[in-house]
Specification:
The complex is a heterodimer of chains A (200) and B (469).
Chain A (H helix, E strand, L loop, with lengths): L7 E8 L7 H4 L19 H9 L16 E3 L12 H9 L3 E4 L4 H9 L4 E3 L2 H13 L4 E5 L4 E4 L2 E4 L4 H8 L6 H6 L1 H9 L2 H4 L1
Parallel strand pairs in A: 1-2, 2-3, 3-4
Antiparallel strand pairs in A: 1-5, 5-6, 6-7
Chain B lengths: L4 H9 E4 L5 E4 L2 E4 L5 H10 L9 E4 L16 H17 L2 E3 L9 H8 L7 E4 L13 E4 L2 H10 L1 E4 L3 E8 L8 H12 L7 E6 L1 H5 L2 H9 L8 E4 L3 H7 L9 H13 L9 E6 L6 E3 L7 E3 L12 H14 L14 E4 L1 H4 L2 H11 L9 E4 L4 H9 L2 H8 L2 E2 L20 E4 L15 E4 L2 H10 L5 H4 L4
Parallel strand pairs in B: 3-4, 3-6, 4-5, 6-7, 9-10, 9-12, 10-11, 15-16, 15-18, 16-17, 18-19
Antiparallel strand pairs in B: 1-2, 2-8, 13-14
Helix pairs in contact in B: 2-5, 6-8, 13-15
Classes of the chains: A alpha/beta (200), B alpha/beta (469).
């Protein structure tokens, strides 16, 4: 399975502020009553967007200035809670191609990497600076360079870190592990045969 | 060299190192349910792959099942399609399915241990973040996403990095009316909801030694709420006694051999940990959440924190939490009006949870205007509780006695909060919208504290209401 080598993501940004944004927030459970991931995109942050509308404000994802943005910026521990892959699937289908945050919950991080959607760690002050630039110039293009570990916007560069294993997987086009795992199936059978509980 | 249980289990299950440096880790036991598996079976079909070890995957249905009206077809056609998809996928692949009519259906994290499928020294994965529950048996158990469910179905392995290990000691006796739920809420409050990122939590100390297997499950269950994907307790005689005689536990001569192996998987004395943290059981009181994540918790007799009392980084979330919860900073949480009381979930839906509450609620009645429901974690728990007369005690007190499932923990079935109802809940997450209403409010607490809220109609100290001493 040849996958695209993901070395750069370029797009406009949208900032969804907040720490500990959980996967129930990203995709409320009632939208998981489905047997495929198709159609989840429109429900990304559904309740938060509806709540904003009800208060007479606008959620960043609905703000006309940020329509079409493909890089999501947020706070720390993004994607905590439920293991639901529906969350990164919803973001991806909404049009998001990379997430920049102070830190990520592990299961969300792994699920996103497997979709080819990099989750890149940045310092909080740099995230705030980026958010400021986006707010004043929503058309500004961000470029995430995974090889160079930086995010560029206008004439500025910010450090942006992807853990080595995820970087390696993305830039070599092996971000979906299934092909590598299948190559090891003979070794899997050998290993399983050595474990009494699997042989039983 | 001294090793942790995690080291030993990792070594025994490592197939190879993948090109990106991750481990291809053998997953000995795979548990699936209706919400996160259908897409994985679809991916398998698209790739022309089959299930590699069908005998090592076990299925049940829990998230979407109604707890009142159990006959199929379900009135919710989407839920009905999900149970049928799971049934068909299991039949086609030869996977054991603890289906609704089996008498063995229930929440996946309650069914696994109850059947003796969950065993020490094993690796377990399930498309559900509360898979950490199984760590109570000295298993290394991971919550995974749907693509990884596909990976495990197709290869019985997944790609993963080895976590660091933080040893968390709790020593001493818990005071009456303080439970394992309070222990884990306290740990999360202290270490934060992201404190466990990159770590597995190994729980130990004399408090854990004295815990029953079910109490250990409650703690391990919520490891993920502290950011730790894996949490475990070293297996001991309590673990072995729990497992003995269960349907999938080893039998006869194999039992002795298994116990010997299981004992050897426990962390060695002197094993090196990346971090060690210790708490005293005596410092823990009944704990309730006031906010929108499980780390936003206080003791029942404390006041909702003022923003000025919190570290800078926690203030924005706290402010959002106070607005959502309609709580006032600086005011006691005790006395807050409760609309719904939910007793159940993979955290606290086991027999011992129901037994403990039933012991105290005789002679009490659910307050008028409060909707109180008991949802046993499995059909097995329900049957035992009915036989022991617990169901009758709950019904007599005014609780609704329901069928087994996840129910109001996440509101994927008809059990949901309405509007901004406030729910005293024995579940594990108080995220905004978690219980099925975007404006619904959740206060997490132990089962007995839920019962106290049910009978008083407000958040109460169960020790006072039930004269626990």
């Amino acid at each position: 399975m040849a996958l695209e080598k993901i070395t750069q993501v370029t797009g406009r940004g949208v900032y969804v502020p907040g720490d500990d944004i959980d996967t129930d927030r990203i995709i409320p459970a009632r939208f998981m009553k489905c047997v495929t991931f198709d159609g989840l995109g429109e429900f990304a942050f559904a309740d938060a967007r509806a709540a904003a509308a009800a208060e007479g404000t606008v959620h960043p994802l609905d703000d006309p200035r940020f329509v079409g943005a493909s890089v999501l910026l947020s706070g720390s521990n993004f994607g905590c809670g439920s293991s639901r892959e529906h969350a990164p699937q919803a973001l991806y289908r909404f049009g998001i191609r990379a997430v920049l945050a102070e830190s990520f919950a592990e299961i969300f991080f792994g699920n996103s990497t497997t979709l080819g959607m990099p989750c890149v760690v940045m310092r909080p002050e740099d995230l705030r600076a980026l958010a400021g630039i986006i707010a004043s110039d929503p058309a500004a293009l961000l470029t995430i360079d995974l090889l160079e570990s930086k995010v560029s916007i206008a004439d500025m560069d910010f450090p942006a870190i992807l853990p080595d294993h995820a970087k390696e997987a993305l830039v070599t086009g092996r971000w979906d592990a299934i092909a590598d795992l299948l190559e090891g199936v003979d070794a899997v059978r050998d290993r399983a045969a050595q474990l009494p509980y699997m042989a039983a | 060299m001294s090793k942790t249980l995690l080291d030993k289990v990792w070594e025994a299950h490592t197939v190879r190192t993948l090109p990106n440096g991750s481990t291809q880790l053998l997953i000995g036991t795979h548990l699936i349910h209706e919400v996160t598996s259908p897409q994985a079976f679809g991916m398998l079909r698209d790739l022309g792959l089959k299930v590699l070890f069908p005998s090592r995957t076990f299925a049940t249905v829990d998230h979407i099942v109604p707890t009142d009206e159990r006959d199929e077809p379900f009135s919710d056609s989407l839920a009905d399609a999900m149970i049928k998809a799971l049934r068909e996928n299991c039949a086609q692949s030869g996977i054991k399915f603890f289906d609704l009519p089996s008498g063995q259906q229930g929440i996946v994290h309650i069914v696994g241990p109850e059947q003796g499928i969950t065993q020490p020294g094993t690796t377990i994965a399930c498309g559900d973040s509360h898979t950490s529950t199984h760590g109570a048996f000295g298993a290394i158990a991971f919550g995974i996403g749907t693509s990884q469910v596909r990976d495990v179905l197709a290869t019985q392995t997944m790609a993963i990095r080895k976590p660091k290990v933080r040893r968390i000691n709790v020593d001493g006796s818990l005071a009456p009316g303080v439970y394992s739920k309070d222990v884990i809420l306290h740990i999360i409050r202290k270490l934060g909801v992201n404190g466990g990122l990159g770590f597995a939590y190994e729980y130990g100390g004399s408090t854990f030694d004295a815990f029953t297997q079910e109490e250990r499950m409650t703690v391990c269950n919520m490891s993920i709420e502290g950011g730790a994907r894996v949490g475990y307790v070293n297996p001991d005689e309590t673990t072995f006694a729990y497992l003995k005689g269960r349907p999938y536990a080893p039998k006869g001569a194999q039992w002795e051999a298994a116990v010997a192996r299981w004992k050897a998987t426990a962390s060695d004395p002197g094993a090196a940990y990346d971090e060690v943290i210790s708490y005293k059981a005596s410092e823990i009181a009944p704990t309730v959440t006031w906010g929108i994540n499980p780390g936003q918790a206080i003791f029942i007799d404390e006041k909702v924190p003022r923003l000025s009392e919190l570290p800078d980084k926690d203030r924005a979330t706290a402010e959002e939490a106070l607005v959502h919860m309609q709580l006032k900073a600086g005011e006691p949480i005790k006395g807050t009006k409760v609309d719904v009381a939910f007793l159940g979930s993979c955290t606290n839906g086991r027999l011992s949870d129901l037994t403990e509450v039933a012991k105290h609620i005789r002679g009490h009645k659910v307050r008028r205007g409060v909707k109180a429901i008991v949802v046993p974690g499995s059909q097995g728990v329900a049957a035992l509780a009915e036989r022991m007369g617990l169901a009758a005690i709950f019904q007599e007190a005014g609780f609704e006695w329901r069928g087994a499932g996840c129910s109001m923990c996440l509101g994927m079935n008809p059990d949901k909060l309405v509007g901004d109802q406030l729910c005293a809940s024995s579940s594990n997450r108080n995220f905004k919208g978690r219980q099925g209403s975007p404006t619904g409010r959740t206060v997490l607490m132990s089962p007995l504290m839920v019962a106290a809220a049910a009978v008083t109609g407000e958040i109460s100290d169960a020790r006072e209401i039930f004269h626990v001493a």
